[in-house]
Amino acid sequence: MSKDRPLNFILIISDTLRRDFLSCYGNTAFSAMHTEHIQKFADKSLVFDKAYSASFPTVPHRHDVFTGCYTATYMPWAPLPKSSP
Fold it and tell me: What is the Cα–Cα distance from 23 to 42, expressed in whole angstroms?
């Protein structure tokens, strides 16, 4: 990769998938879910085997991810303010 070309990444945050149902995390039976496209994406990507969420549910978690801070105790259930770093 060229030093002049910036790295790009895609971050997927989903609160409607169970890790144990995804083939990229070892489910070969697909249980009740067929995840062919997620598997193809994972085959070309970096997949985290251990990641921990500071907040639950989704909106506070997104605030944590994008600010790098634990925000559940003081952020409202609303979009991230434009003033956030």
Answer: 9
Distance of alpha carbon 53 from alpha carbon 19, whole angstroms: 13
Alpha helices (runs of H) in 1-85, residue ranges in sequence order: 36-43, 58-67
d(CA 54, CA 27): 26
- Whole-angstrom Cα distance, residue 31 to residue 36? 13
Lookup: tokens for 35: 């995840």
Query: From first to last of its 85 residues, what are the pLDDT tens digits of the chain?
Result: 567 888 888 887 777 778 888 888 888 775 556 788 888 999 998 888 887 777 777 888 888 888 888 888 888 888 888 887 7
**Can you tell me the distance from the alpha carbon of 47 to that of 9, in angstroms, rounded to the nearest whole number?**
12
